[in-house]
Amino acid sequence: MKHYLFLNASTREPGHVGNTETLARRAALALPAGAAQTWLSLAGLDLPSFVDRRHTAGTYEMPEGDAKRVLDALLDATDIVLVSPVYWFSVPSPLKLCLDQWSAWLRVPGLDFKARMAQKRLWVVATSGDRAKAQPMLDSYRLCAEFIGMPWMGALWGKGGAPEAVLADDEALAAAGRFFAPA
Known about the structure:
The chain has helices at about 20-30, 65-75, 95-105, 115, 130-150, 170-175, and strands spanning about 5-10, 35-40, 80-85, 120-130, 150-160. By secondary structure, it is of the alpha/beta class. The chain has a five-stranded parallel sheet, sandwiched between helices. α1 links the parallel β1 (about 5-10) and β2. The two termini are about 15 Å apart.
């Protein structure tokens, strides 16, 4: 059975749903029948800062706390969906911190993170004021997928900005209904 993990990178105040989450939830309505879904708000988690020890210690311990929670969610899913508004033409800090952890998890003895992640598909849902300004961030995610060996399933983009702006983007809303459809 398919299991979609939605990693929400929005930094909106708790209780406020942003344009990117709105678009992702619209797309999730069209998930295949029987597909499970898990939603994690990264901004609400306590992920540690990444310390690059690749060239000194060379390995990392198994993560604990919220980092272990994210790792377990990633490994339990068949599909990873990055719910990522564009902040300053780039990756929101909660998601960047999460992706930095992947560097450590690649080096946890016995975890086999890269091989296990290569069996999952990577999707992105993003909003911004202008599609061209989202492209550097989207390229970054595609490159991450390629490095890990994950199939890149593409990006769903919508016009963001003020709260609920994406609801006026008829093209994005229509695309959301087809985003997870089998190719």
